[in-house]
Design goal:
By secondary structure, this protein is mainly alpha-helical. The chain is built from nine helices and no strands.
């Protein structure tokens, strides 16, 4: 799989028509391979919808019949029953308009973006935790960047985390440092949002 494919799931990629005759002629029929690609893309999109958690699925603009079919697929555990239900979902997907398909893709793309942002946030917390345990200089740097930090509690957790690592004990203190860093970074994010000036209402 290419790097582009890993970052851009197939079900989010638009189908580009490159194998038909006159692009400007609306009466030019699609080739068999083009129709197959479009069908496969819609089947992938249906599978992506079926895999969504219920709370995210509820945010996707879908016809009621398709929503019901996806819920039924989630409830179906038998292999053959699942296969038939996914075929039915594929049929319903093919009945959607281009505008409906594009709206679905936009929402799914927003989920992918949110997931990447959350992953980056967790990695940032992990990096801080590892630096704090490894270096007293990092502790000083963190305290300077986050003055509301309970300095004594942080230094105690760092000492305990180092002892746990040396003695091969469960990383209880390391997990507590993670939560402390998470709280500090989340607090900064909320402060940044609060500092943003409110948009003034346009005069009538």
């Amino acid at each position: 799989m290419s790097r582009a494919s890993r970052h851009n799931p197939t079900y989010l990629q638009p189908v580009v028509r490159t194998d038909i005759g006159d692009e400007d002629d609306p009466d030019t029929p699609k080739s068999k391979s083009q129709r197959k690609r479009e069908v496969n893309a819609l089947q992938d999109l249906g599978a992506a919808l079926e895999a969504l958690p219920k709370d995210k699925l509820a945010k996707v603009p879908l016809p009621e019949k398709l929503t019901d079919a996806l819920r039924e697929a989630k409830r179906t555990t038998a292999h053959e029953g699942k296969r038939r239900q996914m075929q039915y979902i594929g049929k319903l997907m093919r009945a959607l308009t281009d505008e409906e398909v594009e709206a679905i893709r936009r929402v799914l793309a927003s989920f992918v973006g949110a997931s990447k942002a959350e992953t980056a946030r967790l990695h940032a917390i992990e990096r801080w935790r590892d630096r704090l345990i490894a270096s007293d200089d990092a502790v000083t740097e963190f305290i300077a960047a986050h003055p509301d930090t309970d300095v004594q509690a942080l230094r105690t957790l760092v000492r305990n985390a180092r002892k746990e690592a040396q003695l091969a004990k469960p990383p209880k203190s390391s997990r507590e440092i993670f939560q402390m860093v998470k709280h500090a970074l989340d607090g900064n994010s909320r402060d940044d949002e609060a500092d943003q000036p409110e948009a003034e209402d346009d005069e009538a």
